[in-house]
Design goal:
alpha/beta; about 40% helix; 6 strands; single chain; disordered C terminus; about 280 residues
Length: about 280
């Protein structure tokens, strides 16, 4: 086929693929532009630094860091999304840096934003109670969120905010190397499972997946904040929690019952023996 005909045919195909109408065309080209900018950002993040053999995989423009504390310090100055403008501080995460069990929630709330720690409100107290019921304490696990900054008014995370922040979470998982990642609520479950199924359909159903370059057990759970106000949901959450020791390969040892104090019988007064 002559070159001119091939060129005309290609132009015709492109013309057929273009949406009709000026508004539709502008919308399509805007989408293509956003996609191109996103690809360029991803390429810039994974481009090797001069003199390095492997690309630097980091959520912020800093050198690769293998220590969790060092990475937390780097993330503390993150400005990758608009949430950085209204936060008090970044809520990176807290707990055992080598925990077998890691919990991932949605986003910091009011108290978390002020204190810089995840799950410090009423939901956090419930989480600690649930942990105690299976023989664990807060210091035995690691707790983090999908978002590291509080959304205004505790609204739901937006897709672009999750996209900007998710690499922080993936890097945390890579550094901590947990055996089980328990997702609390819809947002964490959908992000880490890569599936659109809601928490009501998948709670308490473990699944194997790859996170941080290693195979882990993903265990979806209801969010404690939702269970606080729904007794039926709280019962389900408590039931799902009792399976965590089994997933960790441990035997659940119920807490020892408190010994009841039994009053000793009163000693009768000594009787004076009669002389006769």
């Amino acid at each position: 086929m002559p070159r001119l005909l091939r060129h005309e045919r290609r132009e015709a195909v492109l013309e057929l693929r273009r949406p009709r109408g000026v508004q539709a065309a502008e919308l399509q080209w805007r989408r293509r532009g956003r996609l191109l900018r996103r690809l360029l950002r991803l390429r810039a993040l994974t481009r090797p630094a001069p003199g390095l053999d492997s690309p630097a995989v980091s959520a912020v423009p800093v050198e690769r860091v293998d220590d969790l504390q060092a990475y937390a310090e780097a993330v503390a100055s993150c400005t990758r999304c608009r949430l950085s403008q209204g936060r008090t501080q970044v809520v990176f995460g807290a707990g055992n840096p080598h925990a077998e069990l890691m919990f991932v929630g949605e986003a910091p709330g009011f108290h978390e934003d002020k204190q810089g720690l995840p799950f410090v409100g009423q939901a956090g107290k419930l989480l600690e109670k649930l942990l105690a019921g299976i023989g664990l304490a807060r210091g035995d696990v690691y707790i983090a969120n999908v978002l590291k900054c509080r959304p205004p008014g505790n609204r739901d995370p937006q897709p672009d905010e999750i996209e900007a922040c998710e690499s922080h979470l993936f890097r945390q998982i890579e550094l901590i190397e947990p055996t089980i990642v328990a997702t609390l609520g819809n947002f964490a479950t959908k992000l880490l499972s890569g599936r659109p199924l809601g928490i009501t359909r998948v709670h308490g159903q473990e699944q194997q997946t790859t996170l941080g370059g290693r195979s882990v057990t993903l265990y979806p759970l209801y969010h404690p904040a939702a269970a606080l106000y729904t007794p039926a949901m709280l019962k389900v959450l408590e039931s799902d929690f009792t399976r965590i020791p089994e997933l960790l390969g441990r035997v659940l040892t119920p807490p020892e019952p408190e010994l009841a104090l039994v009053a000793e019988p009163a000693t009768p007064p000594a009787e004076q023996l009669g002389l006769f």
